[in-house]
């Protein structure tokens, strides 16, 4: 038996050891996390670090200061569904049969045989979650859970696809207006409708609902690698702002919304930092296409780029993009090379050690750009498709060749106001060659000055016409794959 004094000494020693013990900090997962924050209709010139204002976007500005800001980054196409299909699959959307913005009763959806970012990362043991707007199929089996995501909360399509007038009032049942034919707008969790979004007050909750769920997903999965795809429903119209931010920007409702969306980004970044994950997470912020300019003060801006959403001019397809990964992406860098949303899948695959999809894709890894390697230029050219399969333009280096086609214009009418749109008709354009290094507004055709450049760009376009087709030339293409056919 131990003597009392010796037993007391051992107890004191054990107590001191226990008091000095500090639990080890939870170690981040071996593979890096990936978060994509995808805005809807946010223009190139909307974030303050791209010239936006007079509202403030301090969190996006901080992202740019801590990471890389792209100045020539392109959405896959200048419209909702096509753009999202390109982002998630790494393909030009016409390669996989997706075009335009799919209505609730659309007869096509993203084909289940196409592999998404979520699927290639899930195969690597990643937890995969999506929050927000899907827009690639509005019912089972075309929802996110059937495309590699383990959980989902959001709207199946755009927030204006509902039976509500521009003034926020529901259409009467007797209305003959085409918008009145839309079903009630569902907020879906998993595969089931959680609630109905009935009015603008309900819409004002969406940004907060999405942000809460995104932060919850991060906290819940902090001990394993995860992929989070957060696709906001705004600033796509109708815009709506929570009471916390209403009237706070001094720049109208759009300014208030930009402040709220920026604060959402800030909450996600803060959640990463609080859980010791920010240095182990690649965060990508970008937009699905340019602004819907005919909505006037409820739309954003293009910082002087020509036209907006729904066109192959720069304002329709060049979008803001910021990527942050502390310790991996050099802080405060600006990338002036061409890159695109279709490049995100192969880049993420390279970062995370995932296999590329088995079927051919169009994206290229831009990891050398993220590392700021001297001379890196993985994407030498980019093609602009629109509608079902119109090849409307091609870019290489500083030069962009626009082919004759009918294009949406916002220039013929004064913009709308307070949620009401102005007409934005399609008009014929003769196209031309533009030097984007000195003419980002695409105002001066220089094709007669640089005929060899025109010839070189035509050759690139011809190759794409053979593989992906071109409805403008009545060429079907040999490498296109069908979208899923939605069953009644």
From TrEMBL:
Matches recorded under InterPro entries: Alkaline_phosphatase_core_sf, Sulfatase, Sulfatase_CS, Sulfatase_N
Residues in Sulfatase N-terminal domain copies: 32-353
Keyword Cell division: no
Organism taxonomic ancestry: Bacteria, Pseudomonadati, Bacteroidota, Chitinophagia, Chitinophagales
Protein name, as recorded: Sulfatase
Keywords: Calcium, Hydrolase, Metal-binding, Signal
Cross-referenced Gene3D superfamilies: 3.30.1120.10, Alkaline Phosphatase, subunit A (3.40.720.10)
Ranges of Basic and acidic residues composition bias in the record: 468-482
Family statement drawn from the similarity comment of this UniProt entry: Belongs to the sulfatase family.
